[in-house]
Amino acid sequence: MDPKLFDAAAEGNIEPFKELRAPHVELQQIVTKILKDTILHINIKSQKVSTEFVTQILEMCHSLLLQVNAEGDAPLHVAARCGHSTIVQLLIQRAKTEEEEIDLESGLKPEWEMLKMTNYENNTALHEAARQGSDDVVEILTEEGDPDFHYSANNLGETPLYLAAARGYNRIVIQILESCTTAAHEGPNGKTALHEVAIMLYPDTVKKILEKKKSLTKVTDQHGWTPLHYAAYYRRHWHHTEVVELLLECDRSTAYIGDKDRRMTPLHMAAGQGNLEAINSIISNCPDCYELEVDRAAHREPLCLVYESGDRKAVNNQNVSVSYITKYGYSELEKEIQELSKDVGKGNQYPNGVIRIREGTKIEDSPKQDESAEEEKETRASHLVVATLIATVTFAAAFTFPGGYNSEKGQNQGTAI
Fold it and tell me: What are phi and psi of 11, to 5 degrees?
């Protein structure tokens, strides 16, 4: 492209292009060398984007409306990506007047066809606007587009609904749900839009998705995590409990779903991270979910202690009592807990570790200098026991409320009923 024409397009100067109008000059042939941007692409990308320039150029050469560059971007893709709502509206209105001039095979509304165009990454204009968080553009695209269009996933497995949810653009999520009756919800690695808003802990958005797509509560990602797993695992702000409650009210059965790696349920997730509010919510809604066991990543080993009603003589299946651990420690168990505080799961699905050890907490024994140090050791050991029991993370756990122990002789003697 001639540098003078490039500068004119970027500046929104129409005059040089009027002078070019001749039988041997076609405006659609004037493109950049690498990206094959037309003069319309150039102006929309520039800082001096001009509705007047775009209008006049389309009057001179209407085929530029749908001409794509080397990346498959039509001018609408570029306008949506840049957040130019006035240009987006202008392009759509222009498409409505092009019905007789542009050959559209489907026979549908021309503006709908333009809105459905995908670039070489399989992004529609709505994908681009949702990714950038352009509320005004999304509103125009969804209200002007086909309400029954699916808006499938792009090459990265992202739908517009998922893109908005993953970035916390709540208004866009709600706008898409209200305007697009069949909008797809999928994201990469098996996640859905509900997984993402559960991670972000936005109750209003969670509620809206549940109204439209209730079945998403049971959908698991590649790790076997449901949205409830994520809500129980993360605790970013005070909305945390509300999101957990909403998911449980919609479908309590999700409290019993274990993940793929360790068969951890949402209760295990909440306990391992110390999310007491989530623990209370889950148990109050599903009081029997504490009975579920978890698997070790490589094998099962009954290391857990049974600790109930202050019975410090209770022992685990290796005949180690609570009082022994409190007094002398349990190096093997302590090592387990330390390892579980790291992300040792398959596929890094535990970014905060399986068990969260709060900053400043030490599990290793330290020299006992005085009575306060001894008390600290006992408190730390007690916390270790409770963490092991409540989290029941790598152990074949026997979890119980008051009810007694098994008195029959055999390998299960002494365990909770």
Answer: -85, -10
